[in-house]
Amino acid sequence: MPTIATETGLQTVLTTFETTPGTCQDLLEALTEAYAEFISKQPGFIAAGLHVNDAQTRIANYSQWARREDFQAMLRTPEMRQRNRAINDLCKSFEPVMYEVAATFG
């Protein structure tokens, strides 16, 4: 389960995928499969979540890693490069962005 706190020292990655209602489910399945079969088994992986908007035009992904280098190493693997090419074909665009938790509430 993701931990959202300023003291964790974890690397947080937020990725937004822009898609269409016609391809949203296919993209969601591809992302779910990537996490289940590969990403979640990579060194430094902590947790992740996938979110779909009501219009099925965007998928947001929240993932946490022990270190930014762990996330970058996963992206550089031949398997993830191949998966990202297939994912790219299912969406208009996607961009992973690394963040640090600045504040939490509640």
From TrEMBL:
GO terms for molecular function: monooxygenase activity. Residues 11-101 form the ABM domain. SUPFAM superfamilies: Dimeric alpha+beta barrel. InterPro entries: ABM_dom (IPR007138), Dimeric_a/b-barrel (IPR011008). It comes from the Bacteria. Keywords: Monooxygenase, Oxidoreductase. Coiled coil: none annotated. This is Antibiotic biosynthesis monooxygenase. It comes from Pseudodonghicola xiamenensis.
